[in-house]
Amino acid sequence: MIKSSVKNFILPFTICLLIALALYPDSTLNLDKYSTEGLELNYNISQDLALVANEQTKRQNMFTPHLGKSFEGFKEALAFKESRGDYFTVNTLGYLGKYQFGSETLKVIGIYNPNQFLYNPELQEKAFIANAERNKWVLRKDIKRFEGKLIGGVKITESGILAAAHLAGPGSVKKFLRSYGGNNFSDAYGSTVKHYMRKFSGYDTSFVSPNKKAKAIL
Fold first, then answer.
1. CATH topology (fold) of 71-199
2. Which pLDDT score, from 0 to 100, does residue 218 have?
3. CATH 1.10.530.10 spans which residues of the chain?
4. Which pTM does this prediction carry?
């Protein structure tokens, strides 16, 4: 605390001294009265700014809610995997937004303007819900049949199924489940149905209602 106070004193004092010398060059200012002897003068502004930023980050983290295995936790975990949570990103294959939707999937849930979609976070959130509702309807029988079973070393859960459907489509998920892991779709970046089944297992997705005609409407 003392070291910090000294540092906070030196810089303003030095600035004031230089201003005084500039304004009154002929003054008989006695510099012998001022001394920095014994003070730590190895003062690095960038290091101090880094410390301030670090403290601010710590304070922010103290108030970050723990989403755990809630539905919000599911959404945010999946979004981070897809795009690190960036609403406005487009990947090398043309997939859009926070949840990386393809244009054909968007059409299924009623979105025909990809550019409008990309710059509308609210629409992206509604699209995620609508797509999950539709996938849950398509996979409702498979969820009932396979939930709780072990396939390829992975415990099958509803959230894992919905996450894998988001990655690969419900058809690929059906093939994985009904082949007991033998048919394991992999996307262009190497992510597989099995990996998503494992990574996103155990979240509470009861919020999602199966809906064959789900649409994203503002």
1. Lysozyme (1.10.530)
2. 87
3. 71-199
4. 0.70
